[in-house]
Amino acid sequence: MKTTLSVIKADIGSIGGHLRPSTALMEAVRAYLESKKGKLVVDYRLSNTGDDIAILFSHREGVGSSAIHELAWDAFVAGTAKAKSEGLYGAGQDLLKDSFSGNIKGLGPAVAEMEFEERENEPFIFFAADKTDPGAYNLPLYLAFTDPMHCSGLILSPKMSQGFRFVIMDVEYTEKDRYIELNAPEEIYDIAALLRDNERFVVSQIFSRDSGEQAVAASTTRLHNIAGKYIGKDDPVLLCRVQGSFPAAGEILSPYNIGHYVAGFMRGSHTGPLMPVKNGCGISFFDGPPIVTATAFCVQDGILTEPVDCFDHPYWDHVRGEVSRKATELRRQGFSGAAMLPYSELEYGGIVEKMKKLDGKFKT
Ligand code: F6R
Ligand code: MG
Ligand code: MG
Asked: Is-contact 297 123, C-beta < 8 A?
């Protein structure tokens, strides 16, 4: 029997600005999910990364199941009621529509899902990032699946030397899914040429060319493209099966030691380094820096093991220090040049008005 993993995440309110959800909000979501347990869902885990909460479901309903999406929506609605009663900031902010309609994609929350026949052992890692957008995973995925500098399995494992097939989404095209499929290693220059543009081209899936099996499923929605105006960064989630014909857990984690610069940070309008943090970490300096959590599980017959917090290890303390240094360095130049994003990515429309006004004052 096939297992489906679905992770659905939303920001439905937090304490002290966009920092961290309250314990009571988390408990309200959990209580709702507990009340529905056993009917639809085989197992689930609830977590937070910055101001976002994520529900990881294991079930039998397949990808895009409206029953699973509705369950997540209803759990977020229950959490929003608690957030409102506590006076949390931005209560219900990612629930953009008044009611659920078939598929949660496009209603605000981010979704990453995949269905597979469980291997004899089925380890996977669930990533969640805050104060950034889906393109934040482009570089780490490229490096983990194509570059032996991070993934030694590409040299050492016969299963992996076949390479991987990337499915890359053009997120500016909103009428339908517009995507391209490219094979590594033959087409890595084409893959790199697309993935350098994190705001337009986003990895949505990766498949092993040895087994044909899916390794990666990522959320790719960019709400400002769908809504036509800025509604905050999309704080992406990602599922990645590991080991065997896929990169090992440590190879998938390896590129996160770079602390590469991503879009997001304060008001979703700046550039900042992505910091790998422990589960439950909140947000602080300059509404950032952008953060990512990684949680490993095994799943058997749909039942999830206890979680392992991948970035809760002394090695990553050192990386966090380096990333803080990079964040401070870029923040020293404030609004200038590379520190801020181009107009199309700025979170607030106010600057457009400002520029219009100033334009009228120019003389030739
Ligand atoms: C939200 C975020 C924050 C906010 C900032 C201002 O995800 O990135 O940096 O943009 O705190 O928030 P508002 O406009 O809600 O006062
Ligand atoms: Mg937020
Ligand atoms: Mg967020």
From this structure: yes
- Name the domain boundary from 74, 96, 117: 117
Bridge partners (DSSP) of residue 276 are: 292
89 Cα nearest atom in ligand 1: 15
Angle at 300 between CA 298 and CA 304, to 5 degrees: 55
C-alpha 190/C-alpha 161 separation (Å) is 19
- Of 98, 117, 136, which residue sits at a domain end? 117
Q: Inform me whether the pLDDT recorded for 226 exceeds 70.
A: no
Distance 179 CA to ligand 1 centre (A): 31
- The reported pLDDT for the residue numbered 175 is 86
| Residue 364 forms part of a structural domain | no
pLDDT of residue 326: 98
Q: Which of 170, 179, 190, 230 is catalytic?
A: 230
Is the shortest distance between the CB of 224 and ligand 1 below 6 Å?
no
Q: In CATH, what number is assigned to the domain containing residue 95?
A: 3.30.70
326 an active-site residue? no
Is the beta carbon of 321 within 6 A of some atom in ligand 1? no
Catalytic residue among 9, 82, 233, 326: 233
Mean pLDDT of 31-54: 94
Q: How far is CA 172 from CA 29, 201, 221, 268, 318, in A?
A: 32, 8, 10, 18, 37
Among the bound ligands, the one closest to the CA of 50: 3
The answer on pLDDT for 227 being more than 70 is no
What are the pLDDT digits (tens) for 158-198?
999 999 999 999 999 988 899 999 999 999 999 999 999 99
CB of 18 closer than 6 angstroms to any ligand 1 atom:
yes
Cα angle 206, 207, 209; round to 5: 140
